[in-house]
D-hydantoinase/dihydropyrimidinase (Rhodovulum imhoffii), 484 residues
Amino acid sequence: MTTVIKNGTVVTADLTYKADVSVDGGKIAEIGPDLKGDKELDATGCYVMPGGIDPHTHLEMPFMGTYSSDDFESGTRAGLAGGTTMIVDFALPNQGESLLDALKRWDNKSARANCDYSFHMAVTWWGEQVFEDMKTVVQERGINTFKHFLAYKGALMVNDDELFASFSRLAELGATPMVHAENGDVVAELSARLLAEGNTGPEAHAYSRPSQVEGEATNRAIMIADMAGVPLYVVHVSCEEAHEAIRRARMQGKRVWGEPLIQHLTLDESEYFNKDWDHAARRVMSPPFRNKKHQDSLWAGLASGSLSVVATDHCAFTTEQKRFGAGDFTRIPNGTGGLEDRMPMLWTHGVGTGRLTMNEFVAVTSTNIAKILNCYPTKGAILVGADADIVVWDPEKEKTIAAGDQQSAIDYNVFEGHHVKGLPRFTLTRGYVAIHDGEIRTREGYGKFVAREPNAPVNKALSQWKALTAPRPVIRRGIPATGV
Ligand code: DUC
Ligand code: ZN
Ligand code: ZN
Ligand code: ZN
């Protein structure tokens, strides 16, 4: 069975040209003029692009005393509706838990995915077991990216000695560390002070995480990665200070990548001053939304190439879950949705305004991350032999974003009321047409795990499971028995 996408314009990270694209057995079979097939999809007036890859999601994640509300079924359905054909979720071990046991839980959850997916492994604690497990995770499970939290003190945060030990081990294995870069000690101190002064509302969340905490932690992680001899991927870059550190590192020849989120690019800190508590709390995420100066910096980074990838950090909580934090902003579950809206919002506010070219749009939504993750050109490409993860993009299709129309399982949308122009006409996941002219035809469980090879090891000498200094007692407070 051959499906041909007819009369469209192929747009990749580096080329724009008229061609038909035929798909067979889940792969791209042919690209050229006047192709014939058993079935045709009309792409007249549309751009035929690599499906989006969102490398930053938290589906059904245990967090802050609850679970994020989109699971692998609703989350990937939302992604496909918006043109995203692959996600990468973070497998999160509990304190003291083996990485492999955590992966088993993620294997179970992800069995319901509607599109292909991969995992990053989170390093939430450090010890000999983690050191040993890392090798199995990289060499047998096909996971080459490991996330470290420099925030969430008392729960997910790792200290600098642990960070250096982990980065050194990853250097040896040819894996890439990622960081959530906020100074968790400072955030904890500022949060306690704000609460003591009676600042309990969602706006205090933003005050507790100023851009300096992100700039400091980003710089620190870059320097530690440099000393360990590893590249570094910085997730959810939200401010100029963090961007500046990344820009400088890249100019010095360091392999450092920065990932802004669609939320930080398009929503600002004024959301936290909305008089409606629910409105503000629904937008509480870490890092928080920033002002226009920071937004302009992020857009400039995407255009100039100092920032590489646009993601969502999709971590959706219902209004009811957000209300856990009524009276104490530190208990508002951190996270916002975005999987369905990332591509249309970035197209509208990027390509639609001239801030990004179409090719840059493809690069930052798909191709760049496929290369960083080591799954290019199976993913992120319109090439013969690549997986047929394709979005047929209609630049004239418009809608106003509304929670009532979304695929996500939550009861609101942080982009509510935003008008977007540029939406998928068809979304193909490994050849299967999951979104057909607005109709949702997703298949639960269709998605497959994407294994990713490590890169060549870069540094062996510094690897060790112990921290360089004598082990200190690690204070872990307030951690539920399961989850974090
Ligand atoms: N930030 C969030 O807002 N939610 C999930 C985890 C994170 O780092
Ligand atoms: Zn994070
Ligand atoms: Zn995250
Ligand atoms: Zn808008």
The CA atoms of residues 13 and 362 lie 5 Å apart.
